[in-house]
Amino acid sequence: MRLDFNNCLSEIGEIGFVERVVSSLVYIEGLPGVKPQELVIFETGEFGLVTAISESSSEILSFSHIPVRVGSRVARTNKLLEIPIGGDLLGKTISPLGKSIDPSRPLPPAKETRPIDIAPQGIGSRAKISKACETGVSMVDLMIPLGKGQRELVMGDQKTGKSKFLLRSLLSQIKNGAVGVYAVIGKNQLAIKQIEEELTKMGILSNVVLIVSSADDATGMIYLTPYAAMTIAEYFRDNGRDVLIVLDDLSMHAKAYREISLLGKRFPGRNSYPGDIFYTHSRLLERAGNFRTSHGELAITCLPVVETVQGDLTGYIQTNIMSMTDGHIFFDHDLFVEGRRPAIDPFLSVTRVGRQTQTPLQKEIGRALISFLRNVARMHNFASFGAELGDHIKRALEKEVRVFQFFDQTAYDRVPQALQLFLFGLIWGDAWRDKSRSELRILIQKILFMYDSKQEVRERIDGHISGITRLDDLVKALQDINISSELGV
Amino acid sequence: MTTSVKGTILGVEGQVVEVRFSNGAPAVHDIVVLESDPKIKMEVFSSSGSETYYCLALSSAASLYRGAPIVSTNNPIMIPAGKGLLGRVIDAFGSPIDGKPDIQAEREIPIYGAPVGYRDISTKQEIMETGIKIVDLFCPFLRGGKIGLFGGAGVGKTVLLTELLHNIVILQQKERAISVFAGVGERSREGHELVATLEEKKALSAASVVLGPMGAPPAIRLLTAYSATAIVEYFRDIMKMNVLFFIDNVFRFAQAGNELSTVMRTIPSEDGYQPTLTSEMATLHGRLISTDANAVSTVETVYVPNDDILDQAVQAVFSHLDSAVVFSREIYQQHLLPAIDPLASYSGALSPQTAGELHYQTTRECQGLLKKAIALERVVSLVGESELSLEDRNAYQRAKKLRNFMTQNLFVLEDQAGIKGQFIPLATTIADANRILSGEYDAIPEESFLYIGGLDEIAKK
Amino acid sequence: MKEQDAGHNEIVDTIRTKEERSRFLAFIEELAGRLFRISKEDAIRIIQVRVPECAVAATMRAVTDLPADPETVKGVFEKLERALLALRILRVDVAISPTDAVIEHMFSWVRREVGRGIILDVICDRTVLGGARFVFEGRYREYTLAKKIEKFFENDREYISKKFLHHAS
């Protein structure tokens, strides 16, 4: 049945009239056989979702950009809210209802549609998270590792580098063969375009589906965005691909839902959020995970984003989502201002299931790094007393500088795993003790560039790493190598 | 011959269905079904008017419509009960979710019940060793009692619950009890991992698992708590066994009730919760009491939303507990795991009669020492340790060592941390705490006390 | 009392359209406002001006039978108003401007085939072309010529467009 107003009207034979309009909520009378969660169509051709039915009227969440007029007509579609899906979605930017937002890149008609809001799968189809999910960001892969199928919250104040991290994770995963799904929730049009451009620059747009809603779209559309995105992720999983899905950001989504609930006269709860704000996000995030499918074990790894204000970790939405995800990465404003890149706080960040996917060497490195950084942090407190610093403290502080230079990925997007280990081995030992900050930076960049561009260099470096399972062995093996000869320069 | 009570659907919102019954009144908790499809079930929850009622949709609400005729089954939700529940994983309705066939039931039981009768309540008090130093010393578990694990997001509640389950159920098979595990509103992944762990350690055959994860609608999450409680009662009263009951997370039970009451437009009470919150908590906990005949030992995690321990749902749980283990985000961020606050946690078992004079005195002294150290902390941060009097310096340093000693490697984190877990007997913990208090270890640096088992692991100078 | 009831039922039965009902309700409102100060003669004059043609005779009869006390009169009017508001509306969209004869024709058919308690809301909508569109309590049926023509072209759109293109070239 074609989804246009007149068609629906005559096929189903029921009509409704708009009685009241309260922002994005429309109250209608009529449509006697209307069902909960049904999709309805206004005479303008715009859609709405039935959210509540009472004896005398029905409440509809409108997806229409322009306010619906009182007295206008509504028809039933007898369908649940579904989104058209297919492989053609890759490389496209669509609205949560499945239309391409760029008229110059239209979508071919889809062969399949799927409902947007479905129940998450039970434990029967789940599998333990066992494969690593490389982000290409050394600090994360070594200290706060992620596994495929993990839900990891990315949070921090605005402009602390979260977007860069998300894009890099997508890059790494796509290079690993996964599909990317990026949900942009209620951001302004410029931000949406910039994300698209970044993905194009990285050369991965053709492997990503962008589902977007802008800040001036109907609140109902903003609300739908992450659910539509998750449905698309599930489609690709069911067709044999791993997926990395980014939800940017859920604080905006929570506010949109709050607006809808308050307008619908639901009693406000904590911070005026509705009582079911938890369920709104939990049923979304629970659809990600590691699954047993007919194509083998496949994962939907999810990176939801929450913006904090003044670094407040204990906010309501933040703690809600922390209690759903399998860990969180915290971007700290102060660290960003100090110049640290990425501005991730390794002590406040948590990964609950990532470490089990690491090799023994990686686990050892992770432990060594975290305990080293903790001790050095204590030394900093000490050092600010102005007392004479012992030799071992001086050396530790120098090492810390090397470590942060190693982590600093401002100039390059992706550090493959073998290279992470190689570079770590060099900076952890005394091999680069006397290099200055800028010397280190240039050296690391050179190595990265050569690794990327020259096969022999890659093979040589990989050769140094292979077979090593202990940190001591790694450091020893790399202690005396001559970098210039390694790079062939 | 009772005629069926019939009615029609007036409206639907989320999972709440408003229904008018014309030829009689259904009882609260009765199941009503669609006349056209008896598989579509709802449960009568409360009145909404003189002839109208609010019902909870127990399956997807998508097939309900205005005017649909419905009929009451005159029965509440019943689940299968019996030995067939052991080793199985079920949902709130008793349907298997472990891929195996239906439960072989000895009988069907309603999921709602009355609290234990006054006469039958047991007042026996006995400590159950957990092997976790900080818990055993500061907030020991009472056999047949209730222990609550309180904490915000990501501070280690579920980890500790799993560790307790491991130490009590898996390590100490001598406990000779059946376990029931209720996953109310928690992650599917955790439910899945728990079942896998129980299976792996061969402990599933003495356990029954009921799961209603956070992705399930509120009615399901609410009912999961009731179904699990009914199973505990059955094991206790009919099969006459001691039961270990683990519920993760009791806060989600209150939250589910809140979600439903919002839709029914009940005027919210403090913190926006349903006005019936306190009585709902009381009824649930009242059924989980030990009788003279059999003990029910309950471990419940309580999520603290927004890190706000004064939240009404959190507060509503406290009065039902014998012991409270309170987690602290500050302590977590200092990386002292398990991140438990030894001064905020408490236990009703810490009396000379139940715990014994030695345990009781040791704990009191330790708490006093830790409290003193907090007071001294301020002075230290201003002028440094060296400015303290000798006595105070000793107290301050011993307190730090004691605090560090309370950290422990957990079995359930072996996979993540790569370090083996440890079970430390209560007697060792008490003895070692006293040795620190006495000054025997004054010469040892405080870092040596981190993440060890007993003090004998430190090579004494 | 029975007489009064019969009287007001008689009035309600004469109302045929939504528009007639609105006018009658306006009349009740006006009369109710002047209940205490009006004479029978004035009342009759207002009836002749305000009340729709079809209901005039019945209304006259009812008014002359009314007792003098204002309380009873008020009660009668309230009952009348409720009965009118309880009437259910069948909306009919037709292509022509309905004359009184057409309305009478439609109304008698509904009264005969369906029963009492239903009045019409007849709308003139040229786009219908012929036939009619019906809406009753949320139910919608279209038996218009416009729809039939649309369907005709829709099914044969490809064939027709090819045919015409062929001809054009």
CATH topology of the largest domain in chain B, anyone? Rossmann fold
Count of DSSP H/I helices of chain B: 13
Q: Total strand count of chain A, please?
A: 17
Q: What would CATH call the class of the largest domain in chain B?
A: Alpha Beta
Q: Catalogue the unreliable spans of chain A.
A: none
Which ranges of chain B are low-confidence, i.e. pLDDT below 50, for 5 or more consecutive residues?
none
Spatial sequence of strands, sheet with the most strands of chain B: 8-14-13-15-16-12-17-18
CATH homologous superfamily designation of the largest domain in chain A: P-loop containing nucleotide triphosphate hydrolases
Keywords (chain B): ATP synthesis, ATP-binding, CF(1), Ion transport, Membrane, Nucleotide-binding, Translocase, Transport
Pfam family, one (chain B): ATP-synt_ab
Domain ATP synthase A/B type C-terminal (chain B): 354-436
Domain ATPase F1/V1/A1 complex alpha/beta subunit nucleotide-binding (chain B): 131-347
Question: In words, what does this structure look like?
Answer:
Chain B: It is found in: Membrane. Chain B: InterPro entries: ATP-synt_VA_C (IPR055190), ATPase_a/bsu_AS (IPR020003), ATPase_alpha/beta_chains (IPR050053), ATPase_F1/V1/A1_a/bsu_N_sf (IPR036121), ATPase_F1/V1/A1_a/bsu_nucl-bd (IPR000194), ATPase_F1/V1_b/a_C (IPR024034), P-loop_NTPase (IPR027417). Chain B: Residues 131-347 form the ATPase F1/V1/A1 complex alpha/beta subunit nucleotide-binding domain. The complex is a heterotrimer of chains A (489), B (461) and C (169). Chain A contains 16 helices and 17 strands. Chain A has 489 residues and is α/β, with parallel strands linked by helices. Chain A is elongated, with a radius of gyration of 26 Å. The mean pLDDT of chain A is 91. Chain B has 3 domains: 6-76, Thrombin, subunit H (Beta Barrel), CATH 2.40.10.170; 80-350, Rossmann fold (3-Layer(aba) Sandwich), CATH 3.40.50; 357-457, Bovine Mitochondrial F1-ATPase, ATP Synthase Beta Chain, Chain D, domain3, CATH 1.10.1140.10. Chain B has helices at residues 133-138, 157-171, 188-200, 218-237, 250-263, 277-286, 312-318, 329-333, 352-355, 357-383, 390-405, 414-417, 426-438, and strands at residues 6-13, 16-21, 30-34, 37-47, 52-57, 69-76, 78-81, 89-90, 107-110, 127-128, 141-142, 146-151, 178-184, 207-212, 243-248, 296-303, 323-326, 346-347. In chain B, the strands form 4 sheets. In chain B, strands 8-14-13-15-16-12-17-18 form an 8-stranded mixed beta sheet, sandwiched between helices. A 6-stranded antiparallel beta barrel of chain B has the order 1-2-5-4-3-6. In chain B, strands 7-9 form a two-stranded antiparallel ribbon. The model of chain B has no long low-confidence stretch (mean pLDDT 89). Chain C is α+β, with helices and mostly antiparallel strands and 169 residues long. Chains A and C meet through helix 1 of A and strand 4 of C.
